[in-house]
Every structure is written in structure tokens, then in C-alpha cells.
Amino acid sequence: MSRNRHEHLQFFQHRESGLRGVLAIHDSCLGPAVGGVRCWDYPSEDLLVQDVLRLSESASLSAALFGCDAGGGKAILWADPAAKNEVMLRAFGIFLQSLGGRFIASPELGTTSQDMDIIGKETQFVTGLLKGQNLEGDGSAITARGVLLGMKAAAKSVFGGSSLEGRKVAIQGLGKVGSALLELLAQEGAKLFVSDLYFEKVKNAKDRHPAIEMVPPSEITGLPVDILAPCALGGVLTPESVGQLRCRIVAGAATNQLATEETADALMQAGILYLPDFLLNAGDLVMVNADIYGIPAKTCQPTVERVYGLVEALLARARASGEAPHRIAKAWALDRITHIRTLKKLYKPAR
């Protein structure tokens, strides 16, 4: 926790409803922490804590890169999503209210806008509500758009052209964002290979797009493709697994795809271009930031359209410096956080 300078780590529990989990705030100098509420049954408490720390840091980096007035956080309900119930969600809402607005809840993996409505019965520090602006569907679409733009910029750098027509793309995970990305890539004319732990999702995709090739989850990362798009859980790329990859580009929506920072260096040494996930998947966070501050939703699309130019600038910097793109993008984000933090030293009279 001290290595990444997290501000806050707190466990919570309500035995009667089965609620237990953890919330982390990485940095809040830019504003209240956002990053979503995940519901997932982790195999151990160690992995739960490790993931909440990494996910909250990633949210900070995304917010900083896109000029959001928000910090990074993450809440994880440690449970099977099928075990969620009204009392559990309302108990979490009461816990959230006790933080006084330091963390703003929104839907993430394993939670929905309906869940946010229930949480919202006990706290005002929640967004993505069905009874208000429905951010869930829009958030998935705009996030997928950011990933697509990153892919196109990477393709221009690696293959000499930004077109994805005929390019082989493997999508690992067909959740909300993965499915939205699939539709965009199909429109681009890409040749698609897909996998998911739930076969029904793959079958539904195949029914919509018969040309898709269905791949077992254990084989998707080793396919000989142009682009690998991790869109499921994080930690799929390790220094050991890099040698098994047969792609030229890794660009996906999953958060924390790298198991360690050193994996970025290993990918570069292997000649594989890895685009930082926190640069590509910020669409949902941008929309949450807009909802918090009453910014018109129509401004979110132009913000996400910046991904293409940011990736071009990032790759130009990487070529000039010889550094891994992941490390450069992280330094950019931390630079904004560091400079904004210096403003806290100034006396600011109440308005």
C-alpha cells in the first residue's frame, strides 16, 4: 500500500446480509475518488486487496490523463454476483455514506444500474442510476470507442495504416465493454476471434456475426493474431506469459492487464506493442466525472476521441526515448497529480 502511496484502505462487513469487502482510495487531490463498485468472488483475501489497490491506482491515472476533476478509487464487494441482495447493497450504501463523499459509487464488473438505485436509497454518493441518467450502456459504448481508437493508432504505427479491415483481432471476454468492442470491430471489417468463460455469450456473438471464430478461453491469448484485446479480468499478462503471445499489439479494455510493471518491459523486448489500459478504457470514468459535476454528456465523446492523438504522441515519445509506452503514460498522469497537489499548499478563502 505504501509503495503506491494510497490514501485509504478500509474493510467493511455486515454479517446479516453477507456483505463483506474492501474500499481503496489511491489519490483524491484532483477530486472525489471514482472507479466503480465491483462484485466478485476472489479466491483469497490477499488477491482481493491486491486487486483493489491496483484498480484504484489505475482509476487515478485515467482521471489524470483525461483532465478529470476526480481521483481514483475502487470498492469491491467480496461475493458471487448472484448472491447480491437488497440488504447487502443498502448496507454498502450506509457504509459509503459514512465516508462523506470521498468515494462516488458507479457500476462496474458484477454490478448494474439497478444495484446503484438500491445503494442510492442509503446514500447520495452514487451515480449511474436508472432513475437518473443511465450511464451503464453509454459508458460501455464510449469505453469501447476509446479502445478502438487506440487500436487504430497502434495499427498505423505497427502496420503503416490505421484501417482494421482484415486484421485478426482476438477478444478475451465478452462483458459489456467487450461486446460493444466486438460490434465496433465487426463494423471495421476485422476478422474476429472471441472467448469468454460463459459460453452463452460467445454463442450469442456467433449468432449475430457468423464469421466470428469461437475459441476456448485457455487458447485465446496464444492465437497468431494482429491484435490481442484483453477485456476480462486483470493480471492476464505476466513476464512468463509474454513468450506465449503471438500478436503484434495488445490493446484492450480490461483494467490492470499487466501482472507487474516489469511485464511492460518484457512486452517491449519481445517486439509487442502494449497500450496502457488506463489510457484506452477511461470512457466510463469520463462519463461518471461529467455526471458528478453536471457537465453535459455530449462533451464526453470529444474527450474520448482524444485517445487516438494521445496514443500517437505516446508512441512518438516511446520511439524517441526507448522507454516502454506504459511507463511514459503513467509518468504523464502522475505529473498532473503531483502538480495539482502543490495547489493544496495555497490558502484559498471560502467562496
Structural description of this entry:
The strands form 2 sheets. A 6-stranded parallel β-sheet has the order 8-7-6-9-10-11, sandwiched between helices. It contains 11 helices and 11 strands. The two termini are 35 Å apart. Residues 133-137 have low confidence and may be disordered. Helix content is 43%, strand content 14%. The protein is globular. It has helices at residues 45-65, 86-98, 113-119, 135-159, 176-188, 199-208, 262-269, 277-280, 283-293, 300-321, 325-341, and strands spanning 8-14, 19-27, 33-34, 37-40, 71-78, 168-172, 191-195, 213-214, 227-230, 249-250, 273-274. The chain has 351 residues and is of the alpha/beta class. The chain folds into 2 domains: 8-57 and 70-132, 3-Layer(aba) Sandwich (Rossmann fold), CATH 3.40.50.10860; 137-336, NAD(P)-binding Rossmann-like Domain (Rossmann fold).
